[in-house]
Amino acid sequence: MRRRAFIAAIGGSAIAWPHGVGAQSSNRMRRIGMLFFVSSTDQDQQTRSSALLKALEQLGWTDGGNVRVDTRSAAGDVDRLWALARELVSLAPDVIFCATSATLTALREETQTIPIVFAGVSDPVGQGFVANLAHPGGNLTGFTAFDSAMGSKWLELLKQTVPAIARVTFIFNPKTGPTTKRSCV
Description:
Elements: H1 2-8, H2 12-20, E1 30-36, H3 43-58, E2 67-73, H4 78-90, E3 95-98, H5 101-110, E4 116-118, E5 140-142, H6 150-161
Parallel strand pairs: 1-2, 1-3, 3-4, 4-5
Protein backbone atom coordinates (compact mmCIF):
# COMPACT_ATOMS: atom_id res chain seq x y z
CA MET A 1 0.00 0.00 0.00
CA ARG A 2 2.95 2.40 0.65
CA ARG A 3 4.00 2.12 -2.99
CA ARG A 4 0.51 3.06 -4.16
CA ALA A 5 0.47 6.12 -1.93
CA PHE A 6 3.92 7.02 -3.23
CA ILE A 7 2.78 6.83 -6.84
CA ALA A 8 -0.52 8.63 -6.17
CA ALA A 9 1.35 11.59 -4.76
CA ILE A 10 3.83 11.46 -7.66
CA GLY A 11 6.81 11.50 -5.43
CA GLY A 12 5.45 13.51 -2.54
CA SER A 13 5.53 10.52 -0.26
CA ALA A 14 9.16 9.90 -1.12
CA ILE A 15 9.98 13.21 0.47
CA ALA A 16 7.69 12.54 3.43
CA TRP A 17 9.15 9.07 3.98
CA PRO A 18 11.67 9.94 6.72
CA HIS A 19 8.90 11.53 8.78
CA GLY A 20 6.65 8.50 8.29
CA VAL A 21 9.17 6.07 9.79
CA GLY A 22 9.99 8.25 12.77
CA ALA A 23 13.32 9.63 11.62
CA GLN A 24 14.63 12.70 13.34
CA SER A 25 13.11 15.86 11.97
CA SER A 26 15.44 17.79 9.71
CA ASN A 27 15.38 21.48 8.99
CA ARG A 28 16.96 20.75 5.61
CA MET A 29 14.83 21.93 2.74
CA ARG A 30 13.83 18.99 0.55
CA ARG A 31 14.20 19.23 -3.24
CA ILE A 32 12.08 17.86 -6.04
CA GLY A 33 13.20 17.96 -9.64
CA MET A 34 10.76 17.91 -12.54
CA LEU A 35 11.91 17.37 -16.10
CA PHE A 36 9.60 17.89 -19.08
CA PHE A 37 10.34 17.38 -22.76
CA VAL A 38 7.76 19.96 -23.86
CA SER A 39 7.74 23.72 -23.39
CA SER A 40 6.93 25.20 -20.00
CA THR A 41 3.89 26.84 -21.65
CA ASP A 42 2.47 23.45 -22.74
CA GLN A 43 -0.98 22.92 -21.21
CA ASP A 44 -0.37 19.26 -20.31
CA GLN A 45 2.89 20.12 -18.59
CA GLN A 46 1.22 22.91 -16.63
CA THR A 47 -1.56 20.52 -15.60
CA ARG A 48 0.95 17.90 -14.40
CA SER A 49 2.97 20.50 -12.50
CA SER A 50 -0.14 21.89 -10.84
CA ALA A 51 -1.35 18.41 -9.88
CA LEU A 52 2.01 17.59 -8.31
CA LEU A 53 2.14 20.84 -6.35
CA LYS A 54 -1.46 20.36 -5.15
CA ALA A 55 -0.74 16.77 -4.03
CA LEU A 56 2.37 17.95 -2.20
CA GLU A 57 0.42 20.69 -0.43
CA GLN A 58 -2.13 18.11 0.71
CA LEU A 59 0.77 16.19 2.25
CA GLY A 60 2.05 19.34 4.00
CA TRP A 61 4.81 20.27 1.54
CA THR A 62 4.78 23.79 0.10
CA ASP A 63 7.08 25.00 -2.66
CA GLY A 64 9.36 27.63 -1.19
CA GLY A 65 8.35 26.66 2.34
CA ASN A 66 9.69 23.25 3.30
CA VAL A 67 10.39 21.98 -0.23
CA ARG A 68 11.98 23.47 -3.32
CA VAL A 69 10.69 22.38 -6.72
CA ASP A 70 13.15 22.76 -9.60
CA THR A 71 11.44 22.48 -12.98
CA ARG A 72 13.22 22.16 -16.31
CA SER A 73 11.57 22.11 -19.75
CA ALA A 74 13.42 21.15 -22.94
CA ALA A 75 10.84 22.68 -25.32
CA GLY A 76 11.14 19.69 -27.65
CA ASP A 77 14.92 19.96 -28.08
CA VAL A 78 16.57 16.55 -27.56
CA ASP A 79 20.07 17.94 -26.96
CA ARG A 80 18.70 20.42 -24.44
CA LEU A 81 16.81 17.59 -22.72
CA TRP A 82 20.04 15.71 -22.01
CA ALA A 83 21.75 18.87 -20.74
CA LEU A 84 18.79 19.66 -18.48
CA ALA A 85 18.76 16.10 -17.11
CA ARG A 86 22.43 16.45 -16.20
CA GLU A 87 21.79 19.89 -14.64
CA LEU A 88 18.82 18.63 -12.62
CA VAL A 89 20.74 15.62 -11.29
CA SER A 90 23.64 17.91 -10.30
CA LEU A 91 21.25 19.78 -7.99
CA ALA A 92 20.94 16.50 -5.99
CA PRO A 93 17.17 16.55 -5.53
CA ASP A 94 15.53 14.05 -3.17
CA VAL A 95 13.28 12.79 -5.99
CA ILE A 96 12.75 13.57 -9.68
CA PHE A 97 9.47 13.47 -11.59
CA CYS A 98 9.30 13.05 -15.36
CA ALA A 99 6.49 12.46 -17.81
CA THR A 100 7.78 10.77 -20.99
CA SER A 101 10.05 7.99 -22.22
CA ALA A 102 12.50 10.57 -23.55
CA THR A 103 12.88 12.33 -20.20
CA LEU A 104 13.12 9.03 -18.34
CA THR A 105 15.85 7.84 -20.72
CA ALA A 106 17.89 11.00 -20.17
CA LEU A 107 17.49 10.88 -16.39
CA ARG A 108 18.28 7.17 -16.18
CA GLU A 109 21.57 7.80 -17.96
CA GLU A 110 22.46 10.52 -15.44
CA THR A 111 21.62 8.81 -12.14
CA GLN A 112 21.04 5.38 -10.70
CA THR A 113 20.67 6.64 -7.12
CA ILE A 114 18.15 9.50 -7.08
CA PRO A 115 14.57 8.15 -7.02
CA ILE A 116 12.74 8.89 -10.29
CA VAL A 117 8.95 8.79 -10.53
CA PHE A 118 7.59 8.62 -14.07
CA ALA A 119 4.20 9.03 -15.72
CA GLY A 120 3.22 8.91 -19.37
CA VAL A 121 5.68 6.16 -20.28
CA SER A 122 3.71 3.85 -22.55
CA ASP A 123 5.42 0.52 -21.81
CA PRO A 124 8.00 0.83 -19.01
CA VAL A 125 8.54 -2.93 -18.80
CA GLY A 126 8.79 -3.48 -22.56
CA GLN A 127 11.12 -0.50 -22.92
CA GLY A 128 13.41 -1.93 -20.26
CA PHE A 129 12.99 0.82 -17.68
CA VAL A 130 11.66 -1.46 -14.92
CA ALA A 131 11.67 -5.21 -14.29
CA ASN A 132 7.90 -5.28 -13.76
CA LEU A 133 5.22 -2.89 -12.54
CA ALA A 134 4.63 -4.61 -9.20
CA HIS A 135 8.32 -4.57 -8.26
CA PRO A 136 10.12 -2.11 -10.55
CA GLY A 137 13.50 -2.36 -8.82
CA GLY A 138 16.31 0.19 -8.94
CA ASN A 139 15.61 3.88 -8.55
CA LEU A 140 12.67 4.03 -11.00
CA THR A 141 8.97 3.75 -10.24
CA GLY A 142 5.82 5.18 -11.69
CA PHE A 143 2.67 4.42 -13.57
CA THR A 144 1.36 4.23 -17.06
CA ALA A 145 -2.04 4.88 -18.58
CA PHE A 146 -1.24 2.61 -21.51
CA ASP A 147 -0.90 -1.11 -21.96
CA SER A 148 1.21 -2.15 -24.93
CA ALA A 149 -1.40 -4.76 -25.85
CA MET A 150 -3.84 -1.90 -26.47
CA GLY A 151 -2.09 -1.01 -29.75
CA SER A 152 -3.50 -4.06 -31.53
CA LYS A 153 -6.93 -3.39 -29.99
CA TRP A 154 -6.86 0.19 -31.32
CA LEU A 155 -6.08 -1.12 -34.80
CA GLU A 156 -8.87 -3.67 -34.49
CA LEU A 157 -11.31 -0.94 -33.45
CA LEU A 158 -10.17 1.28 -36.31
CA LYS A 159 -10.75 -1.56 -38.78
CA GLN A 160 -14.25 -2.12 -37.38
CA THR A 161 -15.01 1.59 -37.56
CA VAL A 162 -13.61 2.06 -41.07
CA PRO A 163 -13.74 -1.37 -42.76
CA ALA A 164 -12.32 -0.06 -46.05
CA ILE A 165 -9.10 1.12 -44.42
CA ALA A 166 -6.07 -0.49 -46.05
CA ARG A 167 -3.13 1.36 -44.46
CA VAL A 168 -2.29 2.85 -41.11
CA THR A 169 0.78 4.96 -40.49
CA PHE A 170 2.62 5.03 -37.21
CA ILE A 171 4.80 8.07 -36.59
CA PHE A 172 7.80 7.65 -34.34
CA ASN A 173 10.72 9.93 -33.63
CA PRO A 174 13.81 7.81 -32.91
CA LYS A 175 15.54 10.81 -31.29
CA THR A 176 13.03 10.74 -28.43
CA GLY A 177 12.62 6.98 -28.15
CA PRO A 178 13.56 5.05 -25.03
CA THR A 179 16.69 3.48 -26.48
CA THR A 180 18.16 6.73 -27.75
CA LYS A 181 21.60 7.46 -26.34
CA ARG A 182 23.11 10.81 -27.05
CA SER A 183 26.77 10.95 -27.77
CA CYS A 184 28.77 13.05 -25.32
CA VAL A 185 30.92 14.61 -28.05
